Automatic annotation (TrEMBL):
GO terms for molecular function: ATP binding; selenide, water dikinase activity. NCBIfam families: selD (TIGR00476). It comes from the Bacteria. One of its GO terms (biological process) is selenocysteine biosynthetic process. Residues 107-282 form the PurM-like C-terminal domain. Pfam families: AIRS, AIRS_C. It comes from Geothermobacter ehrlichii. Residues 2-95 form the PurM-like N-terminal domain. This is Selenophosphate synthase. CDD domains: SelD. GO terms for cellular component: cytoplasm. Keywords: ATP-binding, Kinase, Nucleotide-binding, Selenium, Transferase.
Amino acid sequence: MVNTVDFITPPVDDPYWFGQISAANSISDVYSMGGKPVTALNLVMFPSRHLDMGYLKEILRGGHDKVQEAGACLVGGHSVDDEEPKYGLCVNGVVHPDRIITNAGARPGDALILTKPIGSGVLFNAVRSGKFPYPELEREVLPSIAALNGPAMEAALRFELHACTDLTGFGILGHLLEMAQGADARIRVRYRELPFYPGALEMYRKGETTGSNRPNRAMVARCELDMRCALNGAEEELLYDPQTSGGLLLALPASQADELLAELHAGGVKAARLIGEVVSGAVGIEVV
């Protein structure tokens, strides 16, 4: 059995999108371990005296639909009154004990594949501040954020997958650092191969940021970070952008990477990219 729990505040005002995104975010932890979600429990915090209960109904409908899409059963939950809405899931899944995937098994010679774009954190904040139009976010970004990581992991498990993690609040460099530490190796990431959501770079250029960028930068600064490519400030900030329901970061033998990429693209995971590799050396990250 694998068990996980997660909940978030609303990244967008639309309650149905909020429910879908939060559920996909919660379920992703089971997928990242190679597991299959089986049951889920709702975790609800809601200001019932300040918001219409119809808002809550739509949050729960979004979560229910995403749990069903994952092939799991929503079997109950718990709610409390709170000052602001929060929603998530406790997810229970199964995985063969010999096939549990962690973020610590990458090996020198592995290729690294990322399955979703980066930049959701700054875009959510930019919508709130009026710098980015919500209709564009809904059209170009939210479907990817709310997408389950199940199809990507199902494809990856057909290969010699050594390590996996799902991108969340630490940003791409934070999660690469965890993978490098787990492998006791060095990770080389090719900046120009990283997929970014449309508009994310522009928002950093306009001065938008998130509350997580600075602590994420401080966390990565404690390791050996070798910036070998010339990036401006906005381009660099994208490396620390916190993700909600981010993609999977997959490590597998380089000889299998192209075939996995082809399967991911054929299976609808169109944003998947080969972004770097694991190399021998002192624990750290090279951005080239």
